[in-house]
Amino acid sequence: MFVFRFATALVFLFTSLLAAQEKPNVILILADDLAIGDLSLFNDDLCETPHIDALIEDSVYFNRAYSGSPVCAPSRAALLTGRSPHRTGVVSLNQIKYPGLTRLYKDEVTLANLFQENGYATGLVGKWHSGNGEGYHPLDRGFEHFEGFNASVDIKTYFEYKLDLQGDYQDFSGEYLTDSLTRRAIAYVNEHKSEPFFLHLAHYAPHRPLSAPDEMIAKYTAKGVEEKIAKVYAMVDILDKGIGELMTELDRLKLREKTIVIFSSDNGPDPIPGERFNLDMRGMKYEVYEGGIHVPFLVNWKGTLSPAKHDEIIQFIDVFPTLMEICSINPVPETRPLDGASFAGLLSEKYAPVSLPEQRFWQWNRTVPMYSHNAAIREGDWKLVRPFVTRNVPQGESQEAPILYHLGQDPAEDRDVGEFNPNIRDRLNARLEEWTNEIESDRRRNPDTPTAISE
């Protein structure tokens, strides 16, 4: 009997270990305010990013990938939950002025929650912009390990900053922030190399404050780049080196073929440093024009996914269900229905055929959402935009007329064709209003959420 029990225990242990080994690791890397045009693959080596370029060429890359919002916090909420950011309670980005509009509702299920429940180690290194205080800390949202910071309030410069290490705030100076985050991510991978892990590496670069080593800035001013943009490119260059170091470490540990790597940016480039090349797309961060929401996006799983380029439209809300399918993890509760859909079938034929949403939506106006302010809907090549009106609190409905673009014929969003296609314009405008009302109703399910804001 003892021998039988011992043998049974060994079989169970072996089966458990085998199951753990079969679960792919996931590293979700997010840059902050990175433009597609910052990558040398698209800018003729103006800004040098050889490691990201190589990763793109070795990955499934999506030419028409979109963030969840034109600004940081809502975009990250969409990525972490698979739901429109309004539903999650995160609609603003100023957590000091509007704390009630920047916190991920406690009833939301994050990717970290889901991976943790399915036997993964879960870690976040870098930026957290989904609320602070009791119940809103990353350690309360499914992450077992956190080394990072609370949005911009903890970053004085990239050489002087605060980091929250498992709930313990410490001051740091000297080590460049991007290098520090890279080092900590590599340490996390080494610590959990023998078990399945989910690591969210949320870099801050190239978000303000603009700072980089003098020699790196000089590298780009020597190319004739204006100093502010040279700082941005220097920050991106250092970010690229860090991603290369992480990939090298995965290779050294023989984890590349066991690890899914996703890389993207939370939104388009910040306009404050000035305009820079971004594939001639209109708009920048804060705006729902292409320049504010069209982002680089790749999925890499060496040995499993063949390199490919896709033109299907995907959005941050699709990442959650895609990882659920690829990693065979349990679904979220029915009370938290997802807005996105899995695009796993575009990654490999072994997954189910895709059925992506026909319409895509964005809306952001700093405070309580209003559909007529800085909102957009895309359906195929048609895109209807309600223009950005004010950086302040909107006072009533916008009187700006909706603008209709055909991105297939006008990718720069230069020509309003609504006059020639009034039925399409009116239908999309009505659908945009309907969608905004629906998600705003869901946002207001929380009795503590603000329903009106005044300056």
Describe the protein.
By secondary structure, this protein is of the alpha/beta class. Helix content is 31%, strand content 19%. Strands 1, 2, 3, 4, 5, 6, 7, 8, 9, 10 and 11 form an eleven-stranded mixed β-sheet that branches. Strands 12-13-14-15 form a four-stranded antiparallel β-sheet, covered by helices on one side. A hairpin with a 2-residue loop joins strand 6 and strand 7. The radius of gyration is 22 Å and the shape is globular. The N and C termini lie far apart (75 Å). The N terminus is likely disordered.
Quick overview of this protein structure:
With 455 residues, the protein is α/β, with parallel strands linked by helices.
Profile the largest sheet: 11 strands, mixed
What percent strand?
15-25%
Give average pLDDT, whole number. 92
**Treating each run of at least 4 consecutive H or I residues as one helix, how many helices?**
13
How would the blueprint of this fold be written?
Blueprint: H1 2-22, E1 25-31, H2 40-43, H3 50-57, E2 60-66, H4 72-81, H5 85-88, H6 111-117, E3 121-128, E4 145-150, E5 155-157, E6 160-165, E7 168-173, H7 177-191, E8 197-202, H8 214-221, H9 227-252, E9 259-265, H10 290-293, E10 297-300, E11 308-315, H11 319-326, H12 344-347, E12 359-363, E13 375-379, E14 382-386, E15 403-406, H13 422-443
Parallel strand pairs: 1-8, 1-9, 2-11, 3-4, 3-8
Antiparallel strand pairs: 2-10, 4-6, 5-6, 6-7, 9-10, 12-13, 13-14, 14-15
Helix pairs in contact: 7-9, 8-9
